[in-house]
Every structure is written in structure tokens, then in C-alpha cells.
Amino acid sequence: MTLWSESGLAELRELLHRAVVHSDAEAMRTAVDRLFSQGPEGLSAAAEYAIRSPDYVMEMPQSRERIRGREAMRRMQETYPVPPAITVRRVTGAGRVWVMEGINDYAGDVWHVVLVLELDETGRIVRDTRYYGRPFPPDPSRAALVDPLE
Questions:
Q1: Distance (Å, rounded) from C-alpha 123 to C-alpha 145?
Q2: Could you read off the pLDDT of 104-134 as tens digits, one per residue?
Q3: Residue 5 C-beta-side C-alpha neighbours within 13 Å
Q4: Measured between alpha carbons, how far is residue 129 from residues 5, 42, 49, 64, 100 in Å?
Q5: Which phi and psi (to 5°) does residue 117 adopt?
Q6: Mean of the pLDDT values across residues 31-35?
Q7: Distance from C-alpha of 146 to C-alpha of 33, rounded to nearest angstrom
């Protein structure tokens, strides 16, 4: 089975369905890792298209952008100049709402990202809200109070 063969996509859809129906955090983490942790060459607009609802909506509140429909999202992904390398840090949630924390590296341009994923009863993504932030140095006044993140 190749990652994005028909059987690979069916397995991905089953993981998402299990996450929704059983609030299965392990299934969701496995699905997210398969989608995003394969490096830029592993990202697949076609695979993501297959797990989105036809009436999918993606919002990026910080840039005030909204993409309506999985067709429009696929076109945006296929024309994006530099897909990121994604490191998944954490996945948490239950039922139809899951949150992924990660780091997107656009060829050295690093951003922290939080995705809020809302799924339907079958496990298809219906809404995806993304928040991005650039890393910045900690304030020296907190140095004695904090541990640095890796």
C-alpha cells in the first residue's frame, strides 16, 4: 500500500471516522501524522481533497482570508509556491472538534500553527481554522521563570 493509494486513502478516512465516533485520540494523531509529517513531498492536495467535505471552509483570521469549497482549496494548494515541512507537536480534541499544534517550515521561514479541525459524522473535514505566529525571543524579565520549548 502506498501512502496515497486508494487503500491508503480508505485507511485515512477510517482513522478520521474512528476519531469522530469514538473520540479516539490515537486514531486522530495517526491520521494527522500521515497527512502532515511526511515532509513537503508527502503533502498531497489530492489526499486532503479526499477527506474534505464538498462544502469545506478554511479560514485564516489573521489575514482575513476564507476559502470556500474543497475545489477552491485544492486549487490553492496546487498553486502554492513552497509547501511547508510540517512538524506536528500535539493533537487534542474529541468527537467532531480536534486541535493540532505544529510548526510549519517554509524553506527556513518558520511559523507556529494551530489548526482547529471540525469534522462531520463520517470524519470528513468541514471547517478548518488556522492561526499562525512567528517565533520571537522571550522577554528577559521571564528568564528565571520559564523553561525553553524545544
A1: 41
A2: 999 999 999 999 999 999 999 999 999 999 9
A3: 5
A4: 27, 22, 16, 11, 11
A5: -105, 130
A6: 90
A7: 29
